[in-house]
Amino acid sequence: MRVHRFVVVAAVFQGIAFLPALAQGNPTGWKHQAAIYLWGAGMDGTAGARGLEADVNVSFSDLLENLEIGGMAAYRGESGRWAVMADLEFVGLGATKDAQGGIRADVDADQWLVEVDGAYRFTDRVEGIFGARLTSLDTDVVVTTPTPLTISGSDSRSWIDPVVGARLTVPMGEKWSFVGRGDVGGFGIGSDFTWQALLRFGWQVSDLVALDFGYRVLDVDYDDGTGTNRFVWDVQTSGPVAAVSFTF
């Protein structure tokens, strides 16, 4: 399953090579922006593997405490009215939770999010967005009761959601700008439904460097299989975002 996941990731990124062809012949050339960022997100919802389900309610401080490894990066290229965007996130978490009745749960989860979008600018401020978002999850859950009785479940799922949305850019003087983005997707092709909202303010420190901060919400409702083969990821992830970007 791991090999298959990385093949899917590579295939999604290959889509970037085709999108710039939409703008061939445009005399304005390409403008590029690369960013690294931190998403101070908490999670709330329901997750399950191999028929074992649990409520997920993890604050950002809990995520930091149990973080094993994480990385987030984004890219945007523009030419004329066309733009291409890519976003990559990886988070590895390991956590131990104690519940009432002496029940203990040990959870290990690896999550990939890979998104590739194209955009068309209808006006100077409004863009339409179309693309795809890959979600890949590996989860291991071990539940121990006072009996003692140990129940474990491990599972992996990968799916691709088509997404459509809009992006609004509002200049605020020479150095500041506001960007709002919203999208919906899934439609039963990957997840049952997913939606995302992002609001951020940007400060252009120099021609090369910019700082951004804002708030992001990503909601995913995915359900696959039945009985002991059931996998559930009905989780909303939300929190503040901070980024440093480089324009070239």
Provide a descriptive summary of the structure in words.
The longest helix has 17 residues, at 2-18. Mean pLDDT is 83; it is low at 1-27. This protein has two helices and twelve strands; from the N terminus they run αβββαβββββββββ. The chain has a ten-stranded antiparallel beta barrel with strand order 1-4-5-6-7-8-9-10-11-12. It has one domain (2-22, 30-247): Lipocalin. It has helices at 2-18, 60-66, and strands at residues 31-39, 42-49, 52-58, 67-79, 82-98, 104-121, 126-145, 149-172, 176-185, 193-204, 209-224, 231-247. Helix content is 10%, strand content 69%. It has 248 residues and is mainly beta.
What tags apply to this protein structure?
single chain; 248 residues; mainly beta; Lipocalin; ten-stranded antiparallel barrel; 12 strands; disordered N terminus
